[in-house]
Amino acid sequence: MADPKGFLNHGREVAKTRPVGERVRDWNEVYVPGSLLPIISQQASRCMDCGIPFCHNGCPLGNLIPEWNDYAYREDWQAAQERLHATNNFPEFTGRLCPAPCESACVLGINQPAVTIKNVEVSIIDKAWETGDVAPQAPERLSGKTVAVIGSGPAGLAAAQQLTRAGHTVAVYERADRIGGLLRYGIPEFKMEKRHINRRIEQMRAEGTKFRTGVEIGRDIDAMKLRKRYDAVVIAAGATISRDLPVPGRDLNGIHFAMEYLPLANKVQEGDFVAPPITAEGKHVVVIGGGDTGADCVGTAHRQGAASVTQLEIMPKPGEDRAPHQPWPTFPMLYKVTSAHEEGGERVYSVSTTHFEGDEDGNVQFLHLVEVEFIDGKLTQKPGTERKIPAQLVTLAMGFTGTDRENGLVDQFALELDERGNIARDADFQTNVPGVFVAGDAGRGQSLIVWAIAEGRSAARGVDRFLTGASDLPAPIRPTDRALTV
After folding, report:
1. pLDDT tens digit sequence for 33-48
2. Are strands 393-396 and 255-257 parallel, antiparallel or unpaired?
3. Which residues form the 4Fe-4S ferredoxin-type domain (predicted)?
C-alpha cells in the first residue's frame, strides 16, 4: 500500500486549469501542462489500506487502483503503467473523460474528499508515453481467424486490440473519415486533444489491426456479405440516434442536434474547415440538456465567440453533497461545475421548452420555456412561469435513444432487439446471429466510456472463445451488469 498516514497528512488536490481568459482563445486542453506530476505521488499516498477496495466495484473495468496508486506514490512509473494497462486499454481516454465512479466508491470518500484516482491514472499513462513505456504488443503467432469490428469508438477499439493481441486478424470499419467514433468527433479538443487517439491508433496498427474509414456497413457493404467474409463480427456502432424535441418551431433554421454541431467544430481542428458551417459566433446560444454533452456545447460556444450561452435542464438542480437516498458507494447525482461552466454562461434548472419562435426568414430567434415541478412523480408545468429567451443557435443535447436503424445494419443481419431497442445478446455478448457479437452502447444503451471499454474487452473474450473454443482474455463485466446506483 501507499503511505499509511497519507490520507491524514495530505488534503485532496486536483489538476490546475489554465486561466479562463487564456483557454477560451484556443482549443488546447484546459489543464496546465505538467501541473499534476509534482503533486501526484503525494495524492496517490492518500489511498488507504481499506481492506475491501470498493473502487474496484465502482469501476466496471475492475481497475487495480490501490496497486497503481502505490506504485505512483513510490514513483515506480513502469510498474504503475503495467498494472494500469492490465485492465484498461486506453487509460489516457478514461483519465480525461470518465466521470470517475471509482472516486464515488472510494472508501476514504465516506467522510473525506476521495482520492484523486482519475488524476493519478492520467499522470501514470502520460508519463508512460513520455518515457516510451507504451509499446506495441504484437501477437506471437496468428490464429488464422478473421474478425470485423463495426465502429471505432472505445468499445470497438478495445475489442479490436484485445482480439489482435490474441492472434486474430482484425479489421475495424468506421463510417466517418477518421478513426475514433465519438472520441474523435463528439469530444471537443479542449477536453481531449486528438493526438491521444492518434498515437493509440498507431500502436494498434503496429500490432496488426487494420482500419477501414469511410465505410458504412449496411449502406456501403451489405451486413451479411461482411459476415460471410469474416469468421466473426463485432458490432460496436454505438447508440447514435439523438433524442429529439418535437415542439412547435423545431424545424426552424439554427436548431441542431449536439452531434451535428460538435463534429463540425472538431473538423476545424483537424484542418477540414477554416470556419465551421454551424457556428455560435455573435449569437445567443441555448443548449438544451444538462449533461456532459451539453457542457461540451457550452465550452465550444464560448470558444466560437457566442454573445451569450444558456443551458437548460428539465430536472431540478442537484445538491452539492450526497443526498440521503444516494449513499456511498453509489454514484450520486451532484451539482457539477465543469471547465466549460467555469468559462461563463447561465444554467437554468426545472424548465421545459414549449416552442420556438423564428423570424420571417425561418431562422430561430427565441425559445419559449416554462418552469416545471414533479408532483406525485409526474412532471407538471407551473402556471404563470412562461417566458422567452433569445436563441439564435439551439443545440439539443438530451441523450441518445439507440443504435442507427436507417443504414440497414440491424435489418440486414436480422438482429433481435431488447425491450429498450438495443441489440440483444447472450452471456457471451453474441447476438441471435451466430458469430455476430455486440459491444458498447449498441447493446447496453447510452453509457460511459469506462463501460464501453469494459464491454469491448468482455465481448472480445466471447469472440475468442467462439473462434478457438477457449479464451484467456479477461471479461470484466457481463452484459447484464449495471452501474451501482440507487
Report:
1. 999 999 999 999 999 8
2. parallel
3. 38-69
